[in-house]
Amino acid sequence: MKTTYPISSILHQKTSELWSVSPQATVFEAIKLMAEHNIGALLVMSGGRLDGIFTERDYTRKVALQGKTSKETSVFEILSKKCVTVSPDDSVEDCMRMMTENRVRHLPVVEGGYVVGIISIGDLVNWIISTQNAAIEQMEQYIAGGVTA
User: How far apart are CA 118 and CA 52, in angstroms?
Assistant: First the structure.
């Protein structure tokens, strides 16, 4: 299956709303926002620029397991500072490779220094499934004689 489609094709299908917190926000505020919107990661932004990403994994490993309290710990203290980003022109295949190599589940999409979206592993899986279903449907129609080559 061809996975060279650009990530921009997935972004166009998603809501354009981006959820973020400032580095000074408490971890409690961040996880509350994540729960309210049923998301697994938040962009950490200051002055319109991406400082990093805060994930459920950050919370479990850097707060809960280390005995810190979410109401007293700032997002900046536990922020994933190594933030892998992609551009809208990067392919689905490139993003899957980056997620696998860097062991991350979310990739901020950055263009011209500004965040234009975020892609999750779930977004990629859903895109691949729908693309495969469309290809199968097209082949079935071709085999049945409904589509010409």
Answer: 12
pLDDT 10s digits, 26-43: 999 999 999 999 999 999
Phi, psi of 105, deg, nearest 5: -115, -5
Residues 76 and 46: their CA atoms lie apart, in Å, by 11
**Which H/E stretch holds residue 51?**
strand 49-55
More reliable by pLDDT, 148 or 91: 91
Nearest CA to 29 among 65, 61, 69, 81? 69
DSSP code at position 63: I
First to last CA, the chain: 18
CA–CA separation, 55 and 79 (whole Å): 9
d(CA 62, CA 79): 9
Task: Decide which of 133 and 83 is more confident.
Answer: 83
Domains of the chain: residue spans and CATH = 8-143 (3.10.580.10)
